[in-house]
Specification:
The protein has 400 residues and is of the alpha/beta class. The protein folds into 2 domains: 133 residues, Lyase, Ornithine Decarboxylase, Chain A, domain 1, CATH 2.40.37; 235 residues, TIM Barrel. The chain contains 11 helices and 19 strands. Strands 1, 2, 13, 14, 15, 16, 17, 18 and 19 form a 9-stranded mixed β-sheet that branches. An 8-stranded parallel β-barrel has the order 3-4-5-6-7-9-11-12. The protein has a two-stranded antiparallel ribbon with strand order 8-10. Strand 13 and strand 14 form a beta hairpin. It is elongated, with a radius of gyration of 22 Å. It starts with a strand and ends in a 28-residue tail after the last strand.
């Protein structure tokens, strides 16, 4: 893979025809090191956020030794880079083949579930294994999250109590997990979830060995500034200490976005300008999915060789390359008023769910890749990249 000193150097050297996934493994390594050093428990990287080999290598280099995987492909991707990794199959609904192969072919012993039927599948497909670590996913609120995750998975009430008891009888270690939603903006959401979990454990009268607080750890976007990650970790640690039903349980977390968002940016080319609308060579069906469908506004900068006085900026609406009218990024995105066809724009914070969500719809979706060594456009783990940054989106542009 090509390596460049900066995103600007990449554009000046290559004048890329295709959109570019610009990877910053050094940022992922720094984020992983922060969590490993700061979180009072085990850190599992949520591979779904970015399964690129360079990112897997980087979080391993940062000290992460456990991975949250949701498919056989993710299992194979991790083991190809980190054969000694501990894998947790954290998808609550798995095919029988996936359970079987995970256990017998890849040595996976940790499985999440949220129903009696899934428990039965796991027991049957592992031939009644006695070394299972079963994690029951509890339904909790995701009211404070940018992206809600409480409508599809999770068990609650009497059903959760029964499942905890049945799972306890079928495993070596029992865990509980939850997910407060992606890009959670309030640390107290974790405490509220842990209180729900404590009450269910108390009702079930079971011994729990693992409390997994899931993901949801947020990163900063223009107009969307969460509390510091340290505040989240402190809130979780205090809530864990206050759980009266635990005896020597382990604490886990599953950061995804927080480990890899800063480790990627996306470079696109302007193909046409119509007034205050720019037509780009990537968009909603590609690596900019979150900007179109989840309301995020990415930090942006124009990549030009010419330097001089700071240019006047104005809001732009962006369109992707497909024929679909929903291929739209409303923003607004603040860019120099003289932006024109042939210019290159870099979007920051796309390392999470950027390349991972890209499709080949309408024949688009082909990308170049390169490693760049400059700082991320926005960062909580280091200095904010300032060189040639011409604009950020205005405060309040993203929903929270």
């Amino acid at each position: 893979m090509d390596r460049h000193q900066s995103a600007l150097a990449l554009v000046l050297a290559d004048q890329p025809e295709l959109p570019v996934h610009a990877l910053r493994p050094h940022a992922a390594r720094k984020a992983a090191d922060f969590f490993v050093r700061g979180f009072p428990g085990d850190v599992l990287y949520a591979v779904k956020a970015n399964p690129h080999p360079a990112i897997i290598d980087a979080v391993w280099a940062g000290g992460v030794r456990s991975f949250d995987v949701a498919s056989l492909n993710e299992i194979e991707a991790v083991l190809a880079r980190c054969p000694e990794a501990r894998l947790a199959f954290m998808h609550p609904v798995k095919s029988r083949l996936a359970i079987r192969r995970a256990y017998f072919d890849f040595g996976v012993r940790i499985f999440v579930l949220d129903s009696l039927d899934e428990l039965d599948k796991i027991i049957r497909e592992t031939n009644g294994a006695k070394d299972l670590h079963l994690v029951v996913r509890i339904a909790v609120s995701s009211d404070y999250a940018q992206h809600k995750l409480n409508g599809k998975f999770g068990v609650c009430g009497p059903e959760a109590v029964l499942l905890l008891r049945q799972a306890r009888a079928s495993c070596e270690e029992l865990g509980v997990s939850f997910h407060v939603g992606s890009q959670c903006m309030r640390p107290e959401a974790y405490r509220a979830a842990m209180e729900i979990v404590s009450d269910l454990i108390r009702q079930a009268q079971v011994t729990v060995d693992i409390v997994d607080v899931g993901g949801g750890f947020p990163v900063a976007y223009p107009g969307l500034t969460p509390p510091s990650l340290t505040t989240y970790i402190e809130a979780i640690a205090k809530a864990f200490e206050d759980m009266p039903v635990l005896q020597n349980a382990d604490l886990w977390c599953e950061p995804g976005r927080a480990l890899c968002a800063e480790a990627g940016s996306h470079i696109v080319r302007v193909e046409l300008r119509k007034g205050n609308a720019l037509y780009l060579n990537d968009g909603a069906y590609g690596a900019l999915f979150d900007a179109a469908h989840d309301g995020l506004v990415y930090p942006t900068r124009l990549l030009r060789a010419k330097k001089g006085p700071r240019r006047v900026v104005k809001p732009f609406k962006l369109y992707g390359p497909t024929c679909d009218s929903i291929d739209t990024l409303k923003g607004p995105f603040m860019l120099p008023s003289d932006v024109h066809e042939g210019d290159y724009i870099e979007f920051g914070q796309t390392g999470a769910y950027g390349a991972a969500l890209a499709t080949r719809f309408n024949g688009f979706g082909e990308y170049a890749e390169a490693i760049v060594e400059d700082a991320p456009l926005m960062s909580v783990f280091g200095e904010v990249e300032a060189e040639n940054v011409v604009a950020m989106a205005p405060a309040g542009a993203a929903k929270g």
